[in-house]
Design goal:
3 domains; about 675 residues; mainly alpha; 4-stranded mixed sheet; Hypothetical protein af1432
């Protein structure tokens, strides 16, 4: 079965719609976050929180520390007593004493040393560092583990350090020992046993409860405006702990992802439905849909990246870029709608969603309003300033309401707002980039193209001055009409300025440039003359492409005559050759027909302005009749059947044209002659 172009177009839209949803789900942070921030003494600025599951209230670190200290108050750390060190150190001392003092009385001194070493090493020598640590911890005893694993309690006053052991030996030592450095032989033999100590500590603490209560499912935790007391703080902190424990379960993750898909599907559906119902021109263009979808994904992606991989505030993301860029290419309503939808999606991955949405909707409105009539690049900088000012005012207002005191205001977000506003200055670069990639045309480009002092316009005015004046008049007529029927007046104005540039190639063949001289077309046969006139459309396209004019402007050139005829030559041929059928193609413009409101307005303005120059008299009736007949004949020929313009729009355009032409060709009052005073 062969797929028709319309079916392929529909499938492409469905694929784009589903792709947007899938990419947004993938961009969402994989781990759920507890989205609330809270401090003791500050009001709760979020919605009512009720427990969706049972969870215990965990004790604070201070409570746990206090109870731990109470349980371990009488606990004694464990030290192992090494009895083998004594023998080796004593034998080393005797050997050194005999080698250094031949008159050393070994019998007296050795007995004395033996007695002291036995007593001191049996009680235990501990390092100065360990001794000071025990004193600082308030310990007055330790548990001493003997080699046979028998444990007994020893008070600190019965334990030696190397210094006190030395003092004990020399206190009553024989004179022969005074010349020896006994410190070399007194080393600590009480070693801290961390394994046994920690094990028995754990046994004591394992029965200590880490919770102080329970919150039942459906029970209120806190409501908006309540002050976060120490008790509520523990409940909220416990809820956060349990939430983060539960988020990793397979069942919870599946439910979360399902919820995200439903939420994103609903919001993106609303956006596409809006385009389908109210912006059919955007919806029917796949490139436009792709462009808008990429902008939404860009904002979601930047937010996700900031949250996942940086410690920066997500407020540095230039969210206002979305409505600014869409406003420049399309319209304010679409820009604001897309912005609101995107911010609602992002609000599900940020904390304090209410404040985030309030701020972003506000700056979206400011961005759209500040670019209502964008006529120069400096407006982007002005918009960035207005957005920063709005961010600041709304944030401070929210803080005033939430905190109630100036000293408790959070000023740090203002830095993020400033960085975000600076990023907005790069909007012009992005606008230029998107124009080239998607073939769009911004109001900035249109304003630049309306500059009649550009090289192309200056050449146009010089080569074909009559046609140039005609285009200026057509541009004024079309612009006023476009404003009245809510068409793109800037686009119409620009298109009108370029619609007849093809006449630059052979300006002398067109009456407005002939200055009353002989018309060279009068020496040609009617078909040849018609061909030359019709060729100004193709010549205009050629000049436009060499001058790199956008496709949207070229569209005005190719459609401003539609499938109409060169009626002067066509009618002249019929009158001169009543028995010969004319070659219709030789007298018919190649088209296509106008395909939007703007090109339809230009066709009407072009015909009416040209016809107005040939009126024999300018009266209200003649102008009204001329406008009516010209536009009605275009309607009768089916010139507007491809343009989404209504009969009401056409009547409005007629009214505008009549008033404008009457103002141009207004009749002056005839001044009466003064009569003679003498009669």
């Amino acid at each position: 079965m062969k797929i028709t172009p319309s079916q392929l177009h529909f499938i492409t839209k469905i694929g784009l719609f589903l792709s947007v949803i899938i990419f947004i789900v993938l961009l969402f942070p994989s781990e759920s976050k507890f989205k609330y921030q809270f401090e003791v003494g500050k009001p709760w600025s979020y919605e009512l929180i009720t427990a969706s599951f049972d969870f215990p209230i965990y004790k604070s670190e201070q409570q746990i520390s206090k109870e731990t200290d109470e349980i371990l108050k009488n606990f004694t750390p464990f030290y192992k007593l090494d009895t083998k060190i004594k023998e080796s150190q004593f034998n080393k001392l005797l050997s050194d004493c005999k080698s250094k003092n031949g008159k050393f009385s070994s019998s007296v001194s050795s007995k004395y040393l033996k007695s002291k070493f036995d007593t001191i090493y049996a009680s235990g020598i501990i390092s100065v560092e360990e001794y000071n640590k025990l004193v600082n911890d308030g310990r007055n005893s330790i548990s001493c583990i003997l080699p046979n694993r028998v444990t007994h309690i020893v008070t600190l006053e019965n334990i030696y350090t190397p210094k006190t052991a030395y003092e004990e030996i020399v206190k009553n030592a024989p004179c022969a020992l005074n010349s020896f450095n006994l410190n070399m032989y007194l080393v600590d033999n009480l070693k801290y046993d961390s394994v046994t100590t920690d094990l028995l500590k754990g046994d004591l603490l394992k029965n200590m409860s880490l919770t102080s209560g329970m919150v039942q499912t459906g029970e209120k935790v806190i409501d908006r405006g309540e002050i976060v007391t120490p008790t509520l703080f523990l409940a909220l902190k416990s809820l956060k702990i349990e939430f983060e424990k539960r988020k990793g379960s397979i069942q919870q993750s599946t439910v979360v992802v399902l919820g995200e898909i439903i939420m994103i599907f609903s919001l993106i559906s609303l956006f596409f439905l809006y385009l389908y119902l109210f912006r059919a021109r955007i919806f029917e263009n796949t490139g436009n849909l792709l462009f808008l979808s990429l902008l939404i994904l860009m904002m979601v992606g930047l937010t996700s990246f900031t949250i996942r991989y940086t410690s920066l505030s997500y407020y540095i993301v230039p969210y206002a870029l979305l409505p600014m860029i869409i406003r420049v290419f399309f319209d304010s309503r679409t820009a604001l709608f897309a912005h609101v939808i995107t911010m609602l999606i992002i609000s599900f991955v940020v904390d304090n969603s209410f404040q985030f949405v309030l701020l972003q909707i506000t700056i979206g409105m400011v961005a759209v309003s500040s670019l209502r009539d964008m006529t120069q690049r400096s407006q982007l900088a002005q918009s960035a300033f207005y957005i920063f000012l709005s961010y600041t005012l709304i944030h401070l207002a929210f803080e005033f309401i939430s905190e109630g005191e100036l000293l408790r205001i959070h000023w740090q977000p203002l830095i993020s707002f400033g960085i975000s506003s600076i990023f907005l200055l790069f909007a012009y670069v992005l606008i230029y980039f998107f124009e080239k990639i998607f073939g769009l045309m911004s109001s900035v480009t249109l304003v630049e193209l309306t500059n009649i002092n550009s090289d192309l316009m200056m050449k146009f005015a010089e080569v074909a001055p009559g046609t140039f004046q005609h285009t200026l008049q057509v541009s004024n007529l079309a612009t006023e009409a476009a404003k009245k029927i809510s068409a793109n007046s800037l686009l119409v104005r620009t298109g009108a300025l370029y619609h007849d540039i093809g006449k630059m190639k052979n300006p002398e063949f067109f009456t407005e440039n002939q200055m009353g001289g002989k018309n060279p077309l009068s020496d040609m046969d009617y078909e040849e003359a018609s061909r030359i006139v019709i060729n100004h459309v193709a010549d205009g396209v050629e000049i436009a492409k060499k001058s790199h004019l956008p496709e949207q402007i070229i569209n005005f050139i190719v459609t401003h005559h539609g499938l109409g005829k060169t009626k002067f030559f066509y009618n002249s041929f019929i009158n001169a050759n009543p028995n010969i059928l004319p070659n219709e193609e030789a007298f018919t413009y190649p088209g296509p027909l106008p395909n939007n409101k703007e090109t339809a307005i230009l066709m009407m303005a072009d015909a009416v302005e040209a016809r107005s120059r040939s009126l024999s008299e300018y009266t209200i009736e003649s102008i009204d009749d001329m406008v009516e007949s010209m536009i009605n004949s275009q309607i009768a020929e089916g010139q507007f059947r491809d343009a989404p313009i209504t009969f009401r729009d056409v009547e409005t355009v007629k009214t505008v044209f009549k008033e404008k032409i009457k103002n141009i060709y207004h009749s002056r009052i005839a001044y009466p002659e003064a009569k003679s005073l003498n009669g």
